[in-house]
Amino acid sequence: MTTQEKNRLFKALGLKPRLAGANCGGEWFASGADLIESRSPATGELLAKVAQADVKDYARIMQAATSAFVAWRAVPAPRRGEIVRQVGVALREKKEMLGRLVSLEMGKILTEGLGEVQEMIDICDYAVGQSRCLCGPTLQSERPMHRMMEQWQPLGPIGVISAFNFPVAVWAWNSALAWVCGDPVVWKPSSKAPLCAIACQNVVNEVFRANGLPEGISCVVIGRGATVGERMIADSRLPLISATGSTRMGKRIGAVVGARLGRTILELGGNNALIISDKADLTGALASAFFGAVGTAGQRCTSTRRLIIHEKIYATFIAKLVTNYKKVRVGDPLDPKTLMGPLIDEDAVKAYEAAIKAARQQGGKVLYGGKVIEPPLGRRTFVLPTVIEIDNGASIVQHETFAPILYVMKYRKLDDALRLHNDVPQGLSSAIFTDSVAEAETFLSWKGSDCGIANVNVGTSGAEIGGAFGGEKETGGGRESGSDSWKAYMRRQTNTVNWGGEIHLAQGVEFSA
Ligand code: NAD
Asked: How many domains does the chain have?
């Protein structure tokens, strides 16, 4: 991107070379002495410096969010939906610019950057409809002339902690729903992608201001996990913490929020496998495995990390896969010819190298890749996508390495494939490619995949916003986005109404003086 193009992008999104990291609707502020340098993962170019929020700024944000809750929850839900509709319209107008910024700051290729912004738009549309459907059932009472029902009330300010790899979509999944449910949002984005957060907040601020809404409904606090993050998770004014990131981070957050009996949505690491049957359409399987493993440079929570391939087709399939890998163009994520951009930073490259070394030591055979490549653009963040033949039991395979490393292995019987599939600590996304109804149904049955997402003839990577998104085991058990995920952002209340006048105790208990 030329300097001129960057300047145009920055102007359109309200970004400057020097920014402050805290906002609740008005001016940006930050009293922290520390500056985050946002650098392009591809070139190392300094994009902007962001002053981090400190404890005092956090207190100001929380003050705004708690008082905004009182006003926002009183706004009828469909009216809240109308505001979110306007946010969706504003995001549509800025889609191209925001997509470019995601690509520039995070390093995913432009089509994926644009796709991520589309997810924000989609969840806004979804939330608009949801705002008229925050409904509970009417239930039959055991007592005469009584009625029971369930209703859903706003919960309170929601703490959203997000990871670097989806720097805008995860926030939108949470915020669009939280807002229609009547909750303000306090967002702590990843310090690796602060500009994406500032740009999104600027879009929302314009919409909220135009509607005369008070400050505090949408808040951003950019600061260290160890200071601002720790304060958020211990803060009982945030009844729900929705956190996306590594399993290590999730264990810490789960423990701290659990100790105050708060709620969490934990969206943590995956170790996603694709089973390829000998009864599969191999063209579709190949395309899906390829995108799943190489897309986003293997930096999706749903990236395909393991291929479990039927022994009859193993050799042919691997040969075709490696042919595709050889054609992957690694380089500038903003160049339309690039298929794979950089890793987020040099630490991610070290993790890639360490995993390959460990895999070799544990009996793995590198079939393709395994190398850091000469930096095409200046920063040592470009690697070759890698295929390694290895046993599922090797300890490195049991672990999520956030890089384009694909472990491949063989199976003979479907039961063996399922055993290998489930034999990892994580449980996010999974898939089988097969044209056999029996195999597909087995995969989806109680003896099949143990993951939160299980697909048939669709790869592991990428999900539509309409489904509940999340995983089991060390992936954390949270669900966000579609289906009934909205319920996590509300307080459920059971009501019993006596319209007959006579007092009846439940279970027929008699109690009178
Ligand atoms: P990370 O765990 O390093 O950081 C995630 C976020 O947690 C950051 O905002 C960080 O500042 C914050 N954080 C860290 N420690 C904290 C603490 N003690 N208190 C409060 N906040 C704290 O993760 P990352 O490297 O940014 O992202 C990659 C990871 O995220 C991968 O493991 C990936 O699988 C996972 N991820 C999961 C999903 C999902 O939906 N399951 C989606 C995207 C990413």
From this structure: 2
